[in-house]
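Fold this sequence, please.
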Amino acid sequence: MATAALIAPAVAATHSAPVGISPAFAALIAANAAAEKACKVYDANVCAPLTAKARTQAEALPHTAVIIRDRAFSTAVPADVMLSRAIIAGARDKRGYRDHRTFAAAAIRRKRAEKRIWAQSGAAAASEESDRLTDVWADAQGTVAAHPVSTAADLHAKLAFMLAYGMAAEDGWFPYLVADAARVVKMEGR
């Protein structure tokens, strides 16, 4: 059974946020919230609009459609491009496959135009920055989950945090939780 399913009733039963969590742990949770906000704001305000614009421009590029030996080929169909390239690669006499070479060259030109649009629009750089911000956020989540806690309030806050972000013990967090529970028991003298 999933850890989240086991923890959810216990965390929900408290009906309130934990009080008195340690300042160090509260700072980690706040750092995660800041990283999450930075990531989501950047994605919504910068990355998504640039990506949508670049995608629209790339989709507007014309496709090449040809008939080769009674069969239709289009650069809009990736399988057509792959088939044409395979025919060229397998041909003993390359001269007899001029139509396929011309079609494959058209597909290459379109792909290059798509890459130019992606780079010139700023979408490529925005996507890289979005990935970087996502990594920062993921690291902040991991830091919260891996932080050793020693009070019941901190443990409660950690479990609630992990539940909120779908971080299951099965994902490698279980040893941290066991160590946290042992520290809490030890600190409370039980």
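DSSP finds seven helices and two strands in the chain. Confidence is low (pLDDT under 50) at residues 1-8, 10-15.
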